[in-house]
């Protein structure tokens, strides 16, 4: 990683960069013809431009791009699960810590089984969350259930920790009759209105301006709710990210921008994605309070998100959290990451700096968890995932007509055309599809 991972004594957000402004406005000075300019010595002149509060200088100098470079990485726990600075320990109860751990490991187990299921041709596609479990669970645990979540697609742990049941994850991935989307979306495009989790949509960064709009609505209605918006470091290069950040800052919206910087955007490494100091460095440019945290430290993520939430509501301000982590799995089942990164690199993160093992060390250090408990939990959670998967496989696929009947009260012509063409196709090639799997 480019920036040195230094432990910091305190949690602090970077403020927007502000140089000292003019001492005071001295009245308009006219420069047009016929008007006499007031006399000044050049030292006395102060800039009056409306677009910046700044001073004049007389030395030609370009600002170095990394004027704020190597933004430090806030952490609470070291890799052995020891608290670095006791005053930063969030003092989460044993019961709550076990809940964090169980969500992280259950997600890991679900990922393994659904990944295998795709490899065996049982589902069409899958994306794992390996290595990023701490960013999901640490952030969502710090929020209220009423806070609204806009995800990208690699945040299944957020939904899991909020209580989304395994059979609903499975129903979505299998596109069966229990899937709220009735199989019209690719796997991993979850959504749940009751859990305030907006349905995932794949076009990158579209969630960012949408999240800001929702946060603006919260502000206008004084709901004491925040919006959290997750996205990857690659997605931060999209135009929508800029639009979202700038609207959030200028409209003063209670939104937490949560960037998972996992090192890659499919095959594009961060070294090709940007030239500045990551994503946190952009915050001050927008006037957004920003922090970089160790995303593999669930407590650092928790503290930063909790404080961002408190202040976002108290001050009606956006906050930016850049969580440094690593995507251990391939981008998706359509990717083979061995083509662009070494096995050694992946192994380092898997074996030496994993958010699950770090939390496990912390629990073991306190005698809250031992090998026996680990074994029995792994067995139990695997059984629960397998049962949910078998149930999802048994369920039928939704009736084709139903795919077209629940969105529009009057069906638009192009949707009607799709329906006719799909029905014709099924009639013609029906024997190639396991039609007994469809609801009659
Ligand atoms: C607008 C748009 N462009 C391109 C894609 C194809 N695409 C899907 S995921 C992805 C990489 C995103 O990387 P990042 O934001 O870092 O998220 P990560 O996959 O690392 O979690 C790309 C380019 C897309 N879905 N939408
Ligand atoms: Mg990424």
TrEMBL record:
Cofactor(s) required for function per UniProt: thiamine diphosphate
Q: What is its EC number?
A: 1.2.4.4
Q: Name one Pfam family in it.
A: E1_dh
Q: Which GO annotations describe the biological process of this protein?
A: branched-chain amino acid catabolic process
EC supergroup of this enzyme: oxidoreductase
Give the subcellular location. Mitochondrion matrix
Keywords associated with the record:
Metal-binding, Mitochondrion, Oxidoreductase, Potassium, Thiamine pyrophosphate, Transit peptide
GO cellular component entries: mitochondrial matrix
Q: Which GO terms describe its molecular function?
A: branched-chain 2-oxo acid dehydrogenase activity; metal ion binding
Q: What is its main location?
A: mitochondrion
Family matches, as CDD domains = TPP_E1_PDC_ADC_BCADC
Keyword rRNA-binding in the entry? The reply is no
Q: Which reaction does it catalyse?
A: N(6)-[(R)-lipoyl]-L-lysyl-[protein] + 3-methyl-2-oxobutanoate + H(+) = N(6)-[(R)-S(8)-2-methylpropanoyldihydrolipoyl]-L-lysyl-[protein] + CO2
Tell me which residues make up the Dehydrogenase E1 component domain. Answer: 101-400
What is the protein's known function?
The branched-chain alpha-keto dehydrogenase complex catalyzes the overall conversion of alpha-keto acids to acyl-CoA and CO(2). It contains multiple copies of three enzymatic components: branched-chain alpha-keto acid decarboxylase (E1), lipoamide acyltransferase (E2) and lipoamide dehydrogenase (E3). Together with BCKDHB forms the heterotetrameric E1 subunit of the mitochondrial branched-chain alpha-ketoacid dehydrogenase (BCKD) complex. The BCKD complex catalyzes the multi-step oxidative decarboxylation of alpha-ketoacids derived from the branched-chain amino-acids valine, leucine and isoleucine producing CO2 and acyl-CoA which is subsequently utilized to produce energy. The E1 subunit catalyzes the first step with the decarboxylation of the alpha-ketoacid forming an enzyme-product intermediate.
How does the annotation summarize its subunit structure?
Answer: Heterotetramer of 2 alpha/BCKDHA and 2 beta chains/BCKDHB that forms the branched-chain alpha-keto acid decarboxylase (E1) component of the BCKD complex. The branched-chain alpha-ketoacid dehydrogenase is a large complex composed of three major building blocks E1, E2 and E3. It is organized around E2, a 24-meric cubic core composed of DBT, to which are associated 6 to 12 copies of E1, and approximately 6 copies of the dehydrogenase E3, a DLD dimer. Interacts with PPM1K.
Q: Which family does it belong to?
A: Belongs to the BCKDHA family.
Provide the protein name. Answer: 2-oxoisovalerate dehydrogenase subunit alpha
Gene expressing this chain = BCKDHA
């Amino acid at each position: 990683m480019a920036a040195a991972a230094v432990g910091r004594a305190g949690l602090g957000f970077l403020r927007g960069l502000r140089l000292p402004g003019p001492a005071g406005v001295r009245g308009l000075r006219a420069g047009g013809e016929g008007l006499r300019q007031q006399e000044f010595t050049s030292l006395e002149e102060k800039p009056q431009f409306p677009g910046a509060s700044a001073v004049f200088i007389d030395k030609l100098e370009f600002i170095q791009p990394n004027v704020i470079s190597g933004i430090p990485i806030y952490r609470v726990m070291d890799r052995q699960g020891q608290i670095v600075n006791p005053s930063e320990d969030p003092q989460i109860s044993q019961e709550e810590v076990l809940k964090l751990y169980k969500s992280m490991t259950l997600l890991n187990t679900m990922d393994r089984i659904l990944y295998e299921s795709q490899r065996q041709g049982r589902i069409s596609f899958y994306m794992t969350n390996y290595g990023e479990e701490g960013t999901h669970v640490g952030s969502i645990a710090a929020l209220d259930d009423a806070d609204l979540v806009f995800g990208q697609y690699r945040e299944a742990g957020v939904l899991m920790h909020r209580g989304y049941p395994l059979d609903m994850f499975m129903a979505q991935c299998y596109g069966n009759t229990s899937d709220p989307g009735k199989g019209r979306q690719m796997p991993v495009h979850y959504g749940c209105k009751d859990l305030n989790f907006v349905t995932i949509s794949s076009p990158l960064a579209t969630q960012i301006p949408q999240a800001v709009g929702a946060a603006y609505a919260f502000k206008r209605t004084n709901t004491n709710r925040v919006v959290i918006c997750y996205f990857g470091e690659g997605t931060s290069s999209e135009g929508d990210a800029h639009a979202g950040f700038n609207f959030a800052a200028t409209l003063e919206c209670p939104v937490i921008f949560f960037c998972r910087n996992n090192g890659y955007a499919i095959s594009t490494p961060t070294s090709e994605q940007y030239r500045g100091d990551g994503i946190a460095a952009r915050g001050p440019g927008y006037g957004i309070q920003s922090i970089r945290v160790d995303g593999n430290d669930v407590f650092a993520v928790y503290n930063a998100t909790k404080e961002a939430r408190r202040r976002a509501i108290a001050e009606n301000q956006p906050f930016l959290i850049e969580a440094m982590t690593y995507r251990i799995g391939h981008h998706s089942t359509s990717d083979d990451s061995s083509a662009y990164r070494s096995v050694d690199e992946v192994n380092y993160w898997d074996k030496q700096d994993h958010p699950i093992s770090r939390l496990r060390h912390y629990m073991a250090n306190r005698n809250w968890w031992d090998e026996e408990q680990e074994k029995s939990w792994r067995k139990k959670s695997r059984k629960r995932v397998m049962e949910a998967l078998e149930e999802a496989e048994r369920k039928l696929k939704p009736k084709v007509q139903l795919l077209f009947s629940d969105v529009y009260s009057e069906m638009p012509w192009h949707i009607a055309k799709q329906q006719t063409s799909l029905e014709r196709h099924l009639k013609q090639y029906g024997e190639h599809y396991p039609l007994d799997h469809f609801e009659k």
